[in-house]
Amino acid sequence: MTVGAVMDDLPRNRVPEVTLDFWLIKLLAVTMGETAADYLAVNLGFGLTATSLIMAVVLAGALVVQFAQRGYRPWAYWLAVVLISIVGTLVTDNLVDSFGVSLITTTVGFSLALAATFALWFASERSLSIHEIFTFRREAFYWLAILFTFALGTAAGDLVAEQFGLGYGATGILFGMIILSLACGYFWLGLDGILGFWLAYIFTRPLGASFGDLLSQPADYGGLGLGTVVTSALFLAAILGLVMRMMAGRTA
């Protein structure tokens, strides 16, 4: 058996390493998730319920493709992230706008759901490491946790920006400062890498969503008025460019 054959048989991580490009695409994806959800539900007139059902089916198909990969494939992984960002936003928006659940309740509820996911994940695998996602069960926990981070981030961001009245710009700055403090804790104060990763993953959602709303919402609502179409297109183009660069780097 050749060395190459042995390497092919080794389990491979199905998710990317955490690099600067990872965080850049993550931030772009969450921003697009906010604006794309608004575009589909409002501008196209599908409504929250129909849009949520349609996007949930599309996300399910993307996850089937992602789970079928033997290792990390940028196009499959980031397609799933963009779609789960949209669905996570729609889940929270549905609960708040269609069913009248308060933003405080959704924030607390998704926090508990995320905590329960981590507890079950750790009880099952004895680890929450993102560097060893090479089984179906670990990847299932991983994507469930990501879904709840997006739903939680949407609820928390809207709670601070709208109900607490900080506005989109100030809310983005607030969560940006929180993420900066986490980075300082990781690089200089010994913050655990896995804990720091998941906290940053949660807080990048309201950070990106706040700036997405700032760019897309009309001036009367505190935004810059670019609209959901232009904002979504700009961020989608940036995501595609970064993913293509990643794929080119893997084949070089």
Automatic annotation (TrEMBL):
UniProt KW keywords: Membrane, Transmembrane, Transmembrane helix
Parts of the chain that traverse the membrane: 48-69, 75-92, 99-121, 141-161, 173-201, 221-243
Keyword Ribosomal protein: no
Source species, domain of life: Bacteria
Protein name: Membrane-anchored protein
